[in-house]
Amino acid sequence: VTAIETTILLGVIYGFLSITIGWLKQTIDTLLGREKELRNIAEEGEVRLTTILQQLPVGVMIVDAKDHKLTGNKHLEKVTGRKIKGRMRTDESYPSKYIYHNDKPVLQKDWPIARALTKGKTVTLQEMEYRREDKKRLFLRVNASPIKKDEEIIAAVSTFYDVTHEKELEQRKDDFVNMASHELKTPITSMKLYIDLLLKRVQHYEDQRALKAVRSIKLQTEKLQELVSDLLDVSRLQTGKLQFTKEPFSLTELLEETIEMLQETTKDHEIILQQAKDLTVIGDRFRIYQVVSNLVTNAIKYSSSGKEIIVRVEKEGEKAIVHIQDNGIGIPKEQRRKIFERLYQVTDPKEKTFPGIGMGLYIAKEIIKRHKGRIWVESEKGKGSKFSFTLPLKK
Ligand code: ADP
To answer: Is the per-residue pLDDT at 258 higher than 90?
Structure first.
């Protein structure tokens, strides 16, 4: 090979190499540029997410599954009056310094966020009392939920709403109901006494018009008395002051008496009692009477005339079950749970025409709950409802 040929060959190789290097450099530059761009986007996304989280008008707390590190947003720090930092306790019996329930500190295993993280539980709308270091007391409504990646829990998030103001308003409303019902009770009792006296006198004079008027006043006063007594029960239930005596009594007799009495109030319905022989239950006879009377009165109220109401009693293991079935207007599915809440009434304008203020079922539910029983409803809109409750049988 001549020197000239070598020079040409070297020149070609050099040219080829420089083109390749140039191309490689360009490719690497583009790739690096792309990576930087992606990193910027990711960082920007993260910054945006953190900013949003920080500024959300609701308290947020996040705990990491690996190191139990806690992060809280600004709102949470403002509400709780402290910095959220450090790690979450892992000892299940560790009592919280801040959250209380019924005056007792809540143990770690019951903290919504701990339940979400270790048990994978979703906690919704749990109310908790929060005691700040400056002694201020708050009511928080807490939600918590696990965060999963490929079925594995990697963190848990909890949200906190300050509902102290709502709670205070509710308390004031309860205090008002309590006070008003107490104030109303005394004058109504004395009115009732005088009406009875008046009735006796009017009966003596045989004045039919006056007699009708006084009877009507008596009936309305009794209604008023029942309403006030329901109001009082509601406020006593709220404050845990409703007294219960527990003793054995015949459910069979109680149902016979109640139904006989309620049958007198309606000519349009036939109340039929189907019962198992002589069941003796344990409980407060008067309060159980209240429950039966309320359910049967509702069955009458919410079913058009001329229909049967069936009261059936069964024995199931160590429990008695009472069913009260009507063929009335029924209850839409979405309302069935809510009707047992305080002051709840179905809002259908058609149904709004029935008198009442939505206390009966709440009182019934609370009474049954305190007898360790269960109360529920099965219903079909337009076809009727069946309310059932259980009571413990005497052993
Ligand atoms: P009230 O009858 O005073 O409104 P309750 O607490 O007894 O209050 O009942 C709550 C609501 O549940 C009622 O307003 C009514 O809409 C519904 N409800 C109760 N019993 C029945 C029933 N047997 N059939 C249909 N709806 C009923």
So the answer is: yes
